[in-house]
């Protein structure tokens, strides 16, 4: 089983074969992933430094439909008895429903608009939410 195996006194080390620099970087890893996919993946989300990182992460995951909603879990063959939205029970818990279609989420967005002195908005899907920063301007007071 160990035929051809030899032990040496050389210290073990990690090496990165992803690019010519042999030094690992997130940018290099991302470029490697994009190359394997055949190009850039179109996305609308803009990372904002003033937004808490967890909000940026949820936004990014929502745009690519990677939030663990009940619908997404059943697609991954996880046994979920009821896929309906636990907040309103009128639709299946999917990303679009959870963030823009649910009556409860509409109330949350309305509260956020009031709190931030923003004009109310209506989004049809997550893509609309990702574009919202371009069109919504708050009160300057």
List keywords for this structure.
about 140 residues, mainly alpha, 6 helices
Q: Overview of this structure, please?
A:
The chain has 141 residues and is mainly α. It is 42% helix and 0% strand. The protein contains six helices and no strands. The protein is elongated, with a radius of gyration of 22 Å.
Give a concise summary.
The chain contains six helices and no strands. With 141 residues, the chain is mainly alpha-helical.
Write the layout of secondary structure elements.
Elements: H1 26-37, H2 53-63, H3 70-75, H4 95-101, H5 103-115, H6 126-135
Radius of gyration in whole Å, from Cα? Answer: 22 Å
Total DSSP helices: 6
Could you say which overall geometry the principal axes of the C-alpha atoms support? Answer: elongated
How are helices and strands ordered from N to C?
HHHHHH
Low-confidence stretches: none
**What is the number of independent domains?**
2
Strand content range: under 5%
The average pLDDT value, as a whole number, equals 81
Secondary structure: number of strands: 0
Query: How helix-rich are the residues, as a percent range?
Result: 40-55%
Structural class category: mainly alpha
The main pleated sheet reads as: none
């Amino acid at each position: 089983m160990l035929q051809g195996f030899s032990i040496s006194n050389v210290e073990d080390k990690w090496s990165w074969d992803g690019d010519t620099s042999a030094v690992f970087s997130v940018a290099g890893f991302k470029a490697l992933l994009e190359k394997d996919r055949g190009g850039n993946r179109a996305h609308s989300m803009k990372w904002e430094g003033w937004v808490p990182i967890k909000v940026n992460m949820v936004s990014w995951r929502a745009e690519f439909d990677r939030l663990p909603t009940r619908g997404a879990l059943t697609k991954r063959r996880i046994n979920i008895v009821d896929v309906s939205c636990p907040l309103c029970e009128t639709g299946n818990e999917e990303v679009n429903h959870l963030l823009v279609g649910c009556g409860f989420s509409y109330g949350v967005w309305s509260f956020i608009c009031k709190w931030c002195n923003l004009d109310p908005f209506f989004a049809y899907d997550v893509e609309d939410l990702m574009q919202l920063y371009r069109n919504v301007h708050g009160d300057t007071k």
